[in-house]
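note to self: dont lose this again. the chain is below, predicted strucutre after it. 245 aa total, dont forget to put it in the shared folder this time
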Amino acid sequence: MIVLRRATERRHVRSGKQETWLTVFPLDGRPGPAVVACEGIASFSEIRLPPGGGSGSHRREEAEAVTYVYMGALAQEDSTGRSGVLQAGEFQRMTTGRRIRHKETNVSRTDWVHVFRIVLHPSEVGRDSAHEQKRYTAAQRHNLLCPVASRDGRKGSLRIHQDAVIYSSILDPGHHLSHELLPGRSAWLHVVRGEARLDDIVLAGGDGAGVTTEPSVSLTAQENAEILLVDLGPAPILFGSGTVR
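---
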């Protein structure tokens, strides 16, 4: 089963010149197995900050976020005194606590910064705030599914706590990818740029699709394209500080 979320169906939020295109799970008005299976994801957002622009200091819900800087450079700081800069091509895993405030700023005074962020529901509550980041070159992601975040840290990927694997791929026109979905697992596919065909469905930049009860995610680039793919196990059920699966 495949459930589509076209780019134009995302929630569009504008704050000054900052723009965010947001997909929140479960998808509004989209009941069905594919949506339920993707409930391990809290949200998927695409964010553009103008030169010198930034988000005000705010608290995040307890969660784990994987951020990809597609273009530009993003400065981050939080109320614990931790700060740093994410450059284009870098991915970051951040575990956030409820009491910590965060602020993000576009480092450049001339260029926009373009960011993608996947927020996952926590596998358990009460984890300490932490983060790590790593650069993945275009060559590492060229015509293959490069794991950028996983629970087991496979192939040097960022280590997350959820039962999920996040892949990034940059595809040449006509290149085909097939990713096996093991029983009980689902996937969320997002097209960062370009155009790709998922089975017989054409997806363009900004489009997303949930896939479940399928043996694989089968994708062919129609033109130069870039994708993010999240392979998800069943969402955990949280009770207090424990986790039940």
